[in-house]
Design goal:
DUF1656; single chain; about 70 residues; transmembrane helix; about 75% helix; elongated; mainly alpha; cell membrane; two-stranded antiparallel sheet
């Protein structure tokens, strides 16, 4: 079970921290896709980037959830 994070007296959901961590991990993947030309061959690059973010976020939740 996840517990809230206390940051200067304000309680945050652990999911908010996971979302931030997933976004930080997604940025290099998006940059890599742009450099390799992957964003030119997908149908909708913004939806593709969102899908990558959702995949990274779900993997983050699964990995952190398995450890606790």
């Amino acid at each position: 079970m996840f517990s809230e994070l206390n940051l200067l007296g304000v309680l945050f959901s652990p999911f908010a921290a996971m979302m931030l961590a997933a976004w930080i991990m997604t940025i290099p993947l998006i940059m890599l896709g742009n450099r390799t030309g992957l964003s030119r061959v997908v149908w909708h690059p913004a939806l593709f980037n969102l899908a990558i973010y959702v995949i990274v976020l779900s993997l983050t939740v699964l990995i952190i959830g398995a450890g606790s």
